[in-house]
Write a structure and sequence with these properties.
Blueprint: E1 7-14, H1 20-34, E2 43-50, H2 59-67, H3 88-91, E3 99-102, H4 113-119, H5 130-137, H6 139-148, E4 156-159, H7 167-180, E5 185-189, E6 199-201, H8 204-215, E7 221-225, E8 229-238, E9 242-251, H9 259-262, E10 268-270, H10 277-293, E11 298-307, E12 313-319, H11 329-336, H12 341-353
Parallel strand pairs: 1-2, 1-3
Antiparallel strand pairs: 4-7, 5-6, 5-7, 8-9, 8-11, 9-10, 11-12
Helix pairs in contact: 1-12, 7-8
Length: 355
């Protein structure tokens, strides 16, 4: 088949967020799936790597990174560009893209920023739109909507428009947190991913340190009660009709599911999770309802807590651009549900074409 008869998929990856390296790994997986024996006659790829300074590299340079077999071996040489004026409008060749596949985790990706830019090209985009991405990324707005809809969540407080460089403010907030929530608590930046900037706090002094750590990433912060829970996850794909995957569980040896445990080889992934079928159906139903509530479509991973003592389900968060790395739950969930990685990536491209 001639290249012009195939669909050109534009992969965008890297970025300035603190999940840059995860994005590169995800893009490599998707690229490999798009050019696999299963898909090579359907797709060809143009790639756009954004370095840690926000500088866009052209297709030739970006493909070098995607074809690299070792883990991000040459990536450092592309970080030498200083931060300078925006360069993609006049030097990056967007012509010929049929469908965009953004894989920017975190800020400027999952928050809908890249979707807003790509919307001007008038080409389909794999994944959700601007609104769903922004709401799914922002833990405060997400939780407020879910509270209104009575979707079960752990008790929480949110902090906005506070100057946490002031020790007095942090001290006052720590007192309020202890008064209103049961310890331990988790302190999280409202807009971040891969558990970056999150701390578990058991004392007032730990809360103050956790507030400072989260504030360095985002001025808007969420504090949640820490329950004794199991971590369950569900994949969602579709647009007018959303479909839920099998439910998976992550078993980890650390005290909680932090960044290191998320990308550790020591984790045990159990798919399907060893849970009652009724609980499984409840989780799938809540996953679909919550995505609908936030206008999330295309694909997403919905994370849940299952309290050990009560078997109560709590929605944790929705990831609108979940990872596609070798250790990522989203492709594992769909593999267990009957779609291997090559089929899954092709399915997501097809879904975007139907919008």
């Amino acid at each position: 088949m001639l290249e012009k008869e195939k669909k050109c998929i534009g992969i965008i990856f890297g970025g300035e967020s603190n999940e840059h390296d995860v994005s590169v790994s995800s893009a490599k997986t998707v690229f490999k799936a798009l050019i696999s024996k299963t898909n090579i006659n359907r797709f060809w790829v143009k790639a756009f790597y954004i370095n840690k300074h926000g500088v866009w590299l052209d297709n030739d340079q970006s493909l070098v990174l995607l074809k690299e077999k070792r883990k991000n071996e040459t990536i450092d040489k592309y970080q030498v560009f200083p931060k300078r004026e925006i360069n993609f409008l006049n030097t990056i060749e967007f012509k010929g893209i049929d469908i965009w596949f953004p894989l920017l985790h975190g800020v400027n990706g999952e928050d809908g920023a890249i979707h807003g830019l790509l919307k001007f090209t008038q080409k389909p985009i794999v994944g959700g739109g601007i609104l769903g991405s922004a709401l799914g990324m922002d833990k405060i707005l997400m939780k407020k909507i879910f509270s209104h809809l009575e979707i079960p969540q752990v008790n929480y407080l949110d902090i906005q428009n506070q100057d946490l460089s002031d020790d007095k403010v942090k001290n006052n907030l720590s007192v309020e947190i202890i008064e209103k929530l049961k310890l331990p608590v988790f302190v999280k930046p409202a807009n971040s991913g891969s558990s970056l900037g999150i701390s578990k706090a058991k004392t007032r002094s730990e809360i103050i340190k956790a507030l400072q750590k989260a504030w360095e990433i985002d001025s808007r912060i969420v504090i949640e009660e820490g329950l004794d829970v199991r971590e369950l996850e569900c994949g969602i794909i579709g647009n007018l009709k959303l479909t839920a995957s099998e439910i998976g569980e992550v078993s980890y040896s650390t005290d909680w599911y932090d960044y290191d445990s998320k990308y550790s080889m020591d984790n045990q992934i159990i798919i399907p999770a060893d849970i009652d079928s009724q609980i499984s159906e409840q989780i799938k139903d809540i996953a679909i309802r919550s995505c609908r509530a936030l206008n999330i479509y295309g694909f997403a991973r919905v994370d849940f807590f299952l309290e050990k003592i009560s078997n109560k389900i709590f929605l944790n968060e929705i990831n609108t651009i979940p990872g596609f790395t070798s250790k990522s739950m989203f492709p594992m969930l769909w593999n267990a549900s009957g779609l291997n990685i090559d089929q899954l990536v092709a399915k997501l491209v097809d879904i975007s074409s139907d919008l």
